[in-house]
Design goal:
It is built from nine helices and seven strands; from the N terminus they run βαβαβαβαβαβαααβα. It has a seven-stranded parallel sheet with strand order 3-2-1-4-5-6-7, with helices on both faces. Strand 4, helix 4 and strand 5 form a beta-alpha-beta unit. The chain is about 50% helix and about 15% strand.
């Protein structure tokens, strides 16, 4: 029921959520390929996973470019022989701004990474898994997949799209032995969130994090490891009848929030 002996690919592997998922999968016995555009962060994640004694490979790639996606899929097959698990996770927050004022180039950048990148990952990994007759994929959505968040038009649109792609892929590939789900994190304590809170709260990051976490009934932000453990579960046989789902990992925020806050 573990992922022992299985091969996993994780995009956004240099980020804290990607790294947390890699650590959880490595502890469960998987071999890991980490993919990220940031070489330094990739190395940091590689060292963290290697410290557990697991097999880990890295590849620098731009997940919004089809050639790069084909490249990491080919590399994973060459090194592992197959792809059993895929965490389709690379993404960016994007700049804040209203729809009426949003920069078109920034729109293209965020959609390219957060939505086109997820599509390309599915486009190139699904044929591998379908040929194998087995596999599991988790796409990274957000609470923004199910709510309208002001000042984030590109991010919000992309994350809605990720959930739609997840459902479509699950409907297409389920009968061929491949499961596709999405994880929908709420507020997660990452450097990105801390940077945003620092801007909004004029350097008072701790007050900002408390404010961000207050929306959830648990009253706090998540640690990246709490997202990684859910991803590892969804990629394992323990979730063998979970398909086409968007799993909220948000401390209960979606249970109480509406668009009015």
């Amino acid at each position: 029921m573990s992922t022992t002996g299985r091969a996993a690919v994780i995009t956004g592997g240099g980020g804290l959520i990607g790294r947390a998922a890699a650590l959880a999968l490595a502890r469960d016995g998987a071999s890991i390929m980490l993919v990220d555009i940031d070489a330094n962060r990739l190395e940091e994640s590689r060292h963290a996973v290697a410290a557990l004694g697991g097999r880990v490979e890295i590849m620098q790639a731009d997940c919004s470019k089809s050639a790069d996606v084909r490249g990491y899929v080919t590399a994973a097959r060459e090194r592992f022989g197959r792809i059993d698990a895929f965490f389709n996770n690379a993404g960016v927050e994007g700049k804040l701004g209203t729809i009426a004022e949003y920069d078109e180039a920034e729109w293209d950048r965020v959609i390219g990474i957060n939505l086109t990148g997820v599509f390309l990952g599915l486009r190139h990994v699904l044929p591998v898994m379908i040929t194998q007759g087995a596999g599991a994929i988790v796409n990274t959505g957000s609470i923004a997949s199910e709510r309208g968040l002001p000042m984030t038009p590109a991010y919000n649109a992309a994350k809605h799209g990720v959930l739609g792609l997840t459902r479509t892929a699950a409907a297409e590939a389920g009968r061929q032995g491949v499961r596709i789900n999405a994880v929908l994190p709420g507020m997660v304590d990452t450097p990105l969130l801390r940077s945003i809170m620092s801007t909004i709260f004029k350097g008072d990051i701790e007050t900002g994090l408390k404010s961000a976490g207050a929306a959830a009934p648990l009253g706090r932000c998540a640690d990246p490891s709490e997202i990684g453990e859910v991803v590892a579960f969804l990629l394992s046989d323990r979730a063998s009848f979970v398909n086409g789902a968007g799993w909220s990992v948000d401390g209960g925020a979606m249970a109480v929030l509406n668009n009015g806050g």
